[in-house]
Design goal:
Blueprint (H helix, E strand, L loop, with lengths): L6 H31 L5 H6 L6 H8 L6 H4 L2 H26 L6 H26 L6 E7 L1 H11 L7 E7 L7 E5 L2 E7 L4 H7 L4 E5 L9 H12 L3 E4 H9 L10 H8 L8 H35 L4 E7 L5 E7 L24 H9 L7 H6 L3 E3 L6 H10 L12 E3 L1 H5 L6 H17 L2 H16 L5
Parallel strand pairs: 1-2, 1-5, 2-4, 5-6, 9-10
Antiparallel strand pairs: 3-4, 7-8
Length: 468
């Protein structure tokens, strides 16, 4: 029996399909151009017009969010994601067209690429959506465990990415009932005990076994490990709840990882990763320089708007904690009224905060208030992408209340970050925990490509005024 695709395999399959669709669209558009212009289509023609091939990696980067299973299994969200990617690519083309004067960038070719790629992507994604929700790709899931980890496992299984999955039962010894209450209105049959998982997976034709154990250590005895090995040998995909949480939600479950997780994921890493800080630094300087040129054009207009509404000062300085807990001065365009914190105590901003000025609200929604921080990026105090820097008083408080909170200081803070593009502005400890989960995921998986994808999503936030 063919086994269902795992989360990473689904993303890879979608990436390959997207790549084929976009590549065919670009080549088809260039072939049409060669026919209408009377040029022979071949390697020489393609080399002379290689700039158009950049559309392929741009498309694939812009489509990164749509390869999350929760979006890939939702037709409406997939259509919206492809449409937004096409719109962003159109803006990139227009910028290049006006910058170069249109040399070798015919508008008709750009329209061909956008039209062909959009149609092919829609067609491919419809096929993918139909296929992923049917056998042999649909999943039968058994959850084994007890305690808070078991409840968290079902929180993850509510994600739209499991729309194709059937939860066949729970293996737990913690409840002497026939049903497990997995949440509001959700009752799942208890089919056995955790020490019966090898027999249960065969009898119930289970494709995925989620191991959700009590305690942060996830300790099991040798006999149970042998049962899990037999499940894996029989073709069942065995996954720990913490890993399922991370793969599905793209966050690290802070409440369910032990402190030694830091040793494995932050400190005990391959020496081949030592080159990545240099690459990231070069990337930061390059992007900050480009954006700084745009910022110099906007600076006088923003400054005048702030002066007219709120008076001086135009800029706002505040001490923040950077990498390794080092203090630095963060500079932003002022978005609040003077004396926003009369008692000197840090306060989280809230929705509709009356302290925020009208121009400040616009600057926050477009993220333009962050432009002065490009200087901090050039100085090396900040990065373009990373956890958002917090004030020392807030860090001191959250360190006492949130496990692993200080771990976010192992990298440079960013102008934007994985938490910022996925979560609204936090104004509570609970929000801080969720943002930390996103930050730890970013730190674990950071790469130049991940940074580029986050920056592109930030551009979408700016264009659609979704900042806060």
């Amino acid at each position: 029996m063919s086994r269902p695709l795992r989360t990473s395999e689904r993303r890879l399959a979608l990436l390959v399909g997207d790549g084929l669709a976009v590549t065919v669209a670009v080549l088809l558009a260039l072939w049409t151009w060669s026919l209408t212009a009377g040029f022979p289509f071949g390697p020489t023609f393609l080399r002379a017009r290689a700039v158009w091939l950049l559309a392929i990696p741009l498309w694939l980067t812009l489509l990164v969010p749509t390869r999350d299973a929760g979006i890939a299994l939702d037709l409406e969200r997939t259509v919206g994601g492809v449409a937004r990617a096409a719109g962003a690519l159109l803006l990139v083309y227009l910028a290049a067209f006006f910058y170069t004067g249109g040399a070798n960038l015919p508008r008709l070719v750009a329209l061909y690429i956008l039209w062909d790629a959009t149609l092919l992507l829609f067609g491919w994604r419809l096929v993918a959506l139909w296929s992923l929700t049917r056998a042999p790709f649909s999943r039968r899931v058994l959850v084994a465990g007890a305690g808070p980890a078991l409840l968290t496992a079902f929180d993850v299984l509510r994600d739209p990415s499991f729309r194709d999955a059937q939860i066949v039962g729970v293996a737990t010894a913690a409840a002497p009932r026939n049903e497990f209450h997995a949440g509001t209105g959700w009752k799942v049959p208890i089919v056995g005990r955790p020490d019966e998982v090898d027999e249960l997976t065969g009898r119930l034709n289970v494709t995925d076994l989620v191991v959700a154990l009590e305690g942060r250590g996830d300790e099991v005895d040798e006999h149970w490990v042998q049962r899990l090995i037999r499940c894996q040998e029989s073709g069942t995909h065995v996954v720990r709840m913490a890993q399922l949480y991370e793969d599905t939600l793209r966050r690290v479950p802070v409440a369910h990882v032990e402190p030694s997780w830091l040793l494995t994921n932050f400190f005990d890493v391959s020496p081949f990763r030592e080159a990545s800080p240099l690459a990231k630094r070069l990337f930061d300087v390059w992007v900050a320089t480009l954006l700084g040129a745009v910022g110099l054009i906007l600076l006088p207009f923003i400054a005048v708007a702030i002066l007219l509404e709120a008076g001086r000062p135009v800029f706002y300085r505040q001490p923040r904690l950077g990498r390794s807990g080092r203090l630095f001065s963060m500079i932003k365009f002022r978005t609040m009224k003077n004396d926003a914190e009369p008692d000197g105590q840090p306060q989280w901003s809230t929705p509709g905060d009356p302290r925020v000025t009208r121009i400040g609200r616009l600057l926050r929604r477009t993220r333009l208030d962050e432009l002065p921080n490009l200087l901090a990026v050039l100085r090396g105090e900040m990065s373009m992408v990373g956890p958002r820097p917090e004030r020392p008083q807030i860090v001191e408080r959250l360190e006492r209340e949130v496990p692993l909170y200080r771990a976010r200081l192992v990298v440079a803070p960013g102008l934007t970050g994985w938490a910022q593009v996925n979560w609204a502005y936090g104004d509570s400890v609970e929000d801080a925990v969720t943002k930390l989960e996103y930050d730890l995921y970013y730190i674990k998986h950071q790469s130049i490509w991940f940074d580029a994808a986050i920056l592109l999503r930030t551009v979408g936030t700016m264009l659609w005024l979704r900042g806060r």
